[in-house]
Amino acid sequence: MTASSQVTGPRVGAALPPVAFATESVLAWQRVVSSSFVPLVVDDLSDGRFAGTIRGRVIGDVFFSRLRVTPHEVHRTPALIDVSERLFYKITLMLAGTGELVQDNRTALMLPGSISVYDTARPYSLRFADPVDTVVIMFPRDLIDPSPDHVRAITAISLGAEESLTRIVTPLLTEISSDFASLEGPAAARVVHTAVELISALLSTAALARATEGDRERLSLMLRIREHILDNLGDSELNPDSIARAVYISTRHLHVLFHRQGTTVSAWIREQRIEAIRRELSDPMHAHRSIAEIAACWGYPDASHFSRTFRQHVGMAPSGFRRAALEDARHGETRRSKLVPDQRATIG
Question: How far apart, in whole angstroms, are the C-alpha atoms of residue 181 and residue 342?
């Protein structure tokens, strides 16, 4: 494995070149998937004929990958969770072969065309008795609408073709995993945003369908709240009081709902605004607009306050972020021409 090709998992603001690995060593495979996703234990079920390949692409906070692997098991243990710096959701789309996902005292039979979600914050195991071809997407837990409690209700459940949104999401995820090299510049950010929105809609629908009456009411309320916030991100006067009035609940109740999700109303608003601004600063279509204009359109009329907030959230000044993103977009084709997308590094 070459250092320049190493997959390291999601990194804020990153749009890394496509990468690929192949190995016949289960220990090497364990190292690769542990560094690409989260720390994992891998057991070989192939009678000593193990082989695995992974191709992946990190865009923003989202890691898209395609795995082809001989029979094996994967375990996420409490000890490994304790040493993990960040926690994510993972989505697996089965393209070929079958598997079993176990989490939260449930077992999902994963068949071709089905999608399953699991949470890296809690132990899980995956068992593949046959060779498999899968798409795996990993992303921070706060990128989707359902709260962690609502996602817990649908972990280790197979969402198949009977779910209408599965039939919509599957072709997009399959196409993305077939050509990572085509994801460059602003197009990549837009595709990722669309994919995550569709995944969020799929999981929200599944959670609503399987929730108890009380949970269904809470999830529906939370989805209405988030929709109102997203529709009004450009309003600099957007605040907990105005949101609570719009959805007919008390401000205290609003704060309790967000506290249950491990965040605050203000923090969630800020994250959505900064993410929207990041997308526009990265997009050549908005290159003619000033940073102050873009920030004001997303609820930051005070340029100095916005600059401090952006730097705290992203780790660099808005001007530096924009310069790097637009430079990356301009040279995307040149960089892609120098890559060998199907290049494989044999490990072990």
Answer: 10
Residue 274 near residue 295, CB atoms below 8 Å: no
Query: Identity (one letter) of the amino acid at 342?
Result: D
Its sign, for the CA torsion 92, 273, 189, 87, is: negative
Residue 185, φ and ψ in degrees, nearest 5: 55, -150
Structure tokens, 343: 């290049």
pLDDT in tens, 129-175: 999 999 999 998 888 878 787 888 899 999 998 888 899 999 999 98
The full DSSP string for 220-231 is: HHHHHHHHHHHH
Topology of the domain covering 213-332:
Arc Repressor Mutant, subunit A (1.10.10)
d(CA 103, CA 151): 12
| Chain mean position to CA 102 | 20
Task: Return d(Cα 119, Cα 87) in angstroms, integer.
Answer: 8
Contact, 138 vs 88, CB < 8 A? yes
Question: How is residue 87 written in tokens?
Answer: 């926690």
Give the whole-angstrom CA distance, residue 211 versus residue 149: 10
As separate numbers, helices (DSSP H) first and strands (DSSP E) second, the chain gives 13, 13
Question: What is the rounded distance in angstroms from the CA atom of residue 123 to the CA atom of residue 324?
Answer: 38
223 within 8 A of 203, measured Cβ to Cβ? no
Total-model pTM = 0.76
Residue 100 gets the label, from left (phi > 0), alpha (psi -120 to 50) or beta, of beta
Contact 286, 294 (CB under 8 A): yes
Residue 84: count of CB within 10 angstroms of its CB: 14
Which residues, other chains included, contact 304 with Cβ-Cβ below 8 Å and sequence gap of 6+?
Answer: none
Domain 3-210 fold:
Jelly Rolls (2.60.120)
Fill in the amino acid letter for 341. P
Name the token pair of 133. Answer: 């071809």
Q: Domain locations in the chain?
A: 3-210, 213-332
Cα separation, 340 vs 191, whole angstroms: 22
**Chain segment 261-296, per-residue pLDDT in tens:** 778 999 999 999 998 998 889 888 888 999 999 999
